[in-house]
Write a structure and sequence with these properties.
Elements lengths: L13 E3 L2 E3 L1 H22 L7 H21 L2 H23 L10 E2 L2 E2 L9 H21 L1 H6 L5 H5 L3 H49 L8 H32 L8
Antiparallel strand pairs: 1-2, 3-4
Helix pairs in contact: 1-3, 2-3, 3-8, 4-7, 4-8, 7-8
Length: about 260
């Protein structure tokens, strides 16, 4: 019985300065090229009567635009966030299913598989969520620094307190503001870990089942592969939706009701 080795950190092929080239990095670069090629094809062949590929893209764009309008309350702001949100979703959908292309998962360099699901390496999910939520926090701060800081460092109530009760309530409000900071940091970890954990676990389950016996390599893994496909689609949707909601809520927190 031969069970494949399990590595949380991918094996490195080459090192270029501080950058390490590993199977997830190579896969991510190829998926990016595929996505760019698809975008060019759709752009060149765009027409009033859409073909199937254009129709799929239009349906996805329309869906995320509608969700962003609901989340942000403004079509103008929704259009600004749409390219980033839609790109994340399309990238993850293609990346999560890339190794299911025939023969791709069999290509090796030395004794290491050349391609692996990028999201099964923790650096990609954490990088995506940092780009999304990090950018939202920076924009919120630049839009209204005082109001942004006031959402987390709530000291105004302490200066306005005129009684012990007011001071006590202001202290609770100040403490809850600090907890909001912890909550924002937890968003980075929870959303990225959800994507990483599900895809990494899927790879491990299929690898272990395939390595138990010779016969299990062909029949037994099929249900797990199907579940992996569904999980890849669902996780791409969940990750994108959570990122979209958290970005919009951060930006909305520094806008007054009359600004919508």
């Amino acid at each position: 019985m031969t069970i494949p080795e399990i590595h949380v950190a991918p094996q490195v092929f080459w090192t270029i300065g501080p950058f390490e080239i590993s199977p997830p990095i190579i896969t991510a670069l190829i998926v990016s090229l595929i996505l760019i090629t698809l975008a060019i094809i759709v752009r060149v062949k765009i027409s009033l009567i859409p073909n199937r590929l254009q129709l799929i893209f239009e349906m996805l764009i329309s869906y995320f635009l509608d969700q962003l309008i609901i989340a942000t309350g403004s079509r103008k702001r929704a259009l600004k966030l749409l390219p980033f949100v839609a790109t994340i979703f399309l990238f993850l959908v293609i990346a999560n299913q890339f190794t299911l292309i025939p023969f791709v998962s069999s290509i090796v360099l030395g004794e290491v598989l050349l391609f692996k699901v990028p999201a099964a390496h923790y650096s990609l999910p954490i990088a995506l969520i940092i780009m999304g939520l990090g950018t939202a926090h920076i924009l919120a701060f630049l839009f209204h620094p005082i109001r942004y800081i006031g959402n987390y460092i709530k000291i105004a109530g302490l200066f306005k307190a005129r009684s012990f009760k007011d001071f006590f309530m202001a202290g609770i409000d100040f403490f809850l503001g600090l907890m909001d900071i912890v909550g924002e940091l937890a968003k980075f970890i929870s959303v990225s870990t959800r994507l990483f954990g599900n895809l990494f676990a899927g790879e491990i389950v299929v690898g272990i089942i395939s390595g138990l016996l010779f016969i299990t390599q062909f029949v037994v893994p099929i249900p797990f592969i199907v579940l992996g496909i569904l999980s890849g689609l669902v996780q791409a949707f969940v990750f994108t939706t959570l990122t979209m909601i958290f970005m919009s809520s951060t930006l909305n927190s520094v806008r007054r009701a009359e600004e919508y």
